[in-house]
C-alpha cells in the first residue's frame, strides 16, 4: 500500500521564526505504511509547502503514492472517468507493467482534498536508457532509474495549487532516491504544471533546455470532400494529383491492408519490418520495433479493438505503413515509414490520405492525433497545434548535478549548432542529408 501524508493545521499568519520552531519540535504528519500509523518529522515536501504557505487546514490536502500494481484498482473509477488517451488507459498501463522488463514499478500520485481524490499523476519507475543527442548524433546514453509520468497522464483538477503540490511530491520522491531523474512525457508548455516546475525547482536542479515541440491534431469533418476543401489550394491540388498519379502508375498492382485482428499480428510485423528496416528512424533506434514487446502489445490491443496497422503494397511488396490506435473518439498515430526508394511517388502520403478518408466516414471518430513532432504533413492536414514540453527534474545529489551539467552542455551545443545552420538557411537541407546518410548506413 502506498504512503499517505495528512497535512498539518498551519496558521498562515505564523512568523518565520515560529515556522522554524515548529519544524524543529513538531511531529509533522502521520505516515501510514500498510495501514499502520506513526509520526515523524517534517519531510522536504512539508518544509517546501511550509515556507510557501500552501499548507492550510488539517486533512484538507493529502498526497498518496501508489507503488503497488494491485492497489491501482482502488482508483480505477476516478482513473477511468478522467483519462482519454490510450497510453494513460489503466488496463494498458497494467499490461505494460506485465510485459516490459524495464517497467520496474508503478508510481501514481493521488492528490485528495477533504478525503476526496481530485488529481492523478500517472507515473512509473523505469530502467531507461537516455539518449541525449546533438542533431541525430548520440552523445550521452546513460541507463538511469527514471520516474516517468506518461503522456496525458496528469488528470483531474490541475489548478496551480495542485500542480505545485505534485511538483513538491516529485521532488521529495527524488530526495528519497526513488529515482535518478524524473520527467513528464510532454505536457502543454503554457500549463500550470510547467509553471510550477519553473517556480519551484531550484536553478541547479532545473532543466534549462527542455525539449519542446508541436503536437498536431486534425478535427475530422463529416466527409472527405470537406476535408479537402479546408486545405490550401496548393495542398488540395497535391492531395488529388499525387494519389491519382500513384494509382495510374500501379494500376491493378496496388492494395491497402489494415491489420487489426489477433491472428494477423505476425503478418503485419513481418511486412512492416521490410519497410522500417530501410528508414532513417531505424538507424536512430527510434520508430517501429519488431520485437517481442511490440508483438505482445499488438496482440493485446487487437483484442481490445484498438490496433490499426495499415500497410500499402505496390507490386505485392510493402511500400509504406501507418500504425496507430483507434481509441474512443480518435485515431492516434504511433509509428510510420515508407520505402525511401519510392519517395518520389509519395507512398506514405497516399496511405495517410486514404486513412483520413476512411475516418471521415466514421461517425464515432472525431479527430486524428498525429502525435508529437514537426513534420510538414502535420501542419498541412492538422487543424490544431499545441506546444508541449518535456522537462527533466534532477535530484539534489552529486549524480543529479552531474547529469544536469552533461544534459545542459549537450543541449546548449545542439542549440548553438542549430542557430548556425539556420542563420545560413540550411537547416532543412542538413536534416535531409543526415537522414539520407542514416538510411544508407
Structural descriptors:
alpha+beta; Aminopeptidase; 2 domains; eight-stranded mixed sheet; seven-stranded mixed sheet; 15 helices; 29% strand; disordered N terminus
User: Would you give the CATH topology of the largest domain?
Assistant: Aminopeptidase
In angstroms, what separates the terminal alpha carbons? 49 Å
The helix-and-strand class reads: alpha+beta
Largest sheet: 8 strands, mixed
Which CATH class of the largest domain applies here?
Answer: Alpha Beta
What is the name of the CATH superfamily of the largest domain? Gcn5-related N-acetyltransferase (GNAT)
Number of helical segments with 4 or more residues: 15
- The count of strands amounts to 19
Radius of gyration: 25 Å
Mean pLDDT reading:
85
What does this structure look like?
The chain is α+β, with helices and mostly antiparallel strands and about 450 residues long. It folds into two domains: about 60-210, Gcn5-related N-acetyltransferase (GNAT) (Aminopeptidase, 3-Layer(aba) Sandwich); about 215-385, Aminopeptidase (3-Layer(aba) Sandwich). It contains 15 helices and 19 strands. An eight-stranded mixed β-sheet has the order 11-18-12-17-16-15-14-13, with helices on both faces. It has a seven-stranded mixed β-sheet with strand order 1-4-5-6-9-10-19, with helices on both faces. The protein has a two-stranded antiparallel sheet with strand order 2-3. A hairpin with a 2-residue loop joins strand 5 and strand 6 (about 115-130). Helix 2 (about 45-50) runs antiparallel to helix 5. The longest helix has 26 residues, at about 400-425.
Amino acid at each position: 500500500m502506498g504512503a499517505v501524508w495528512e497535512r498539518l493545521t498551519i496558521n498562515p499568519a505564523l512568523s518565520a521564526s515560529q515556522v522554524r520552531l515548529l519544524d524543529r519540535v513538531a511531529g509533522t504528519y502521520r505516515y501510514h505504511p500498510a495501514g499502520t500509523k506513526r509520526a515523524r518529522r517534517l519531510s522536504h515536501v512539508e518544509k517546501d509547502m511550509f515556507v510557501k504557505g500552501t499548507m492550510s487546514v488539517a486533512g484538507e490536502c493529502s498526497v498518496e503514492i501508489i507503488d503497488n500494481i494491485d492497489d491501482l484498482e482502488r482508483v480505477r473509477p476516478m482513473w477511468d472517468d478522467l483519462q482519454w488517451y490510450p497510453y494513460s488507459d489503466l488496463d494498458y498501463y497494467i499490461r505494460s507493467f506485465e510485459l516490459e522488463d524495464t517497467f520496474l514499478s508503478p508510481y501514481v500520485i493521488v492528490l485528495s482534498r477533504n478525503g476526496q481524490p481530485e488529481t492523478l499523476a500517472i507515473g512509473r519507475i523505469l530502467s531507461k536508457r537516455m539518449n541525449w543527442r546533438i542533431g541525430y548524433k548520440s552523445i550521452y546514453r546513460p541507463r538511469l532509474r527514471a520516474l516517468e509520468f506518461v503522456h496525458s497522464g496528469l488528470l483531474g483538477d490541475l489548478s496551480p495549487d495542485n500542480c505545485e503540490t505534485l511538483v513538491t511530491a516529485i521532488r521529495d520522491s527524488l530526495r528519497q532516491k526513488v529515482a535518478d531523474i524524473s520527467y513528464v512525457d510532454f505536457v502543454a508548455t503554457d500549463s500550470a504544471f510547467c509553471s510550477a516546475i519553473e517556480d519551484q525547482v531550484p536553478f541547479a536542479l532545473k532543466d534549462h533546455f527542455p525539449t519542446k515541440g508541436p503536437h498536431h491534431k486534425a478535427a475530422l469533418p463529416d466527409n472527405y470532400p470537406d476535408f479537402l476543401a479546408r486545405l490550401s489550394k496548393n495542398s488540395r491540388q497535391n492531395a488529388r494529383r499525387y494519389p491519382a498519379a500513384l494509382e495510374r502508375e500501379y494500376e491493378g498492382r496496388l492494395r491497402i491492408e489494415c491489420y487489426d485482428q489477433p491472428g494477423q499480428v505476425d503478418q503485419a510485423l513481418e511486412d512492416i519490418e521490410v519497410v522500417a528496416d530501410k528508414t532513417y528512424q531505424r538507424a536512430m533506434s527510434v520508430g517501429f520495433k519488431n520485437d517481442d514487446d511490440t508483438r505482445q502489445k499488438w496482440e493485446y490491443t487487437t483484442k481490445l479493438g484498438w490496433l490499426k496497422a495499415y500497410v500499402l503494397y505496390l507490386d505485392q511488396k510493402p511500400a509504406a505503413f501507418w500504425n496507430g490506435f483507434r481509441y474512443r473518439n480518435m485515431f492516434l498515430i504511433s509509428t510510420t515509414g515508407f520505402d525511401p526508394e519510392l519517395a518520389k511517388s509519395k507512398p506514405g502520403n497516399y496511405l495517410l490520405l486514404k486513412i483520413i478518408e476512411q475516418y471521415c466516414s466514421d461517425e464515432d471518430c472525431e479527430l486524428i492525433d498525429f502525435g508529437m513532432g514537426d513534420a510538414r504533413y502535420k501542419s498541412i492536414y492538422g487543424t490544431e497545434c499545441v506546444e508541449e514540453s518535456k522537462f527533466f527534474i534532477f535530484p539534489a545529489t552529486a549524480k543529479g548535478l552531474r547529469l544536469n551539467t552533461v544534459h545542459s552542455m549537450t543541449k546548449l551545443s545542439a542549440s548553438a549548432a542549430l542557430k548556425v545552420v539556420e542563420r545560413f538557411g540550411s537547416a532543412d537541407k542538413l536534416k535531409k542529408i543526415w537522414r539520407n546518410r542514416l538510411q544508407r548506413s
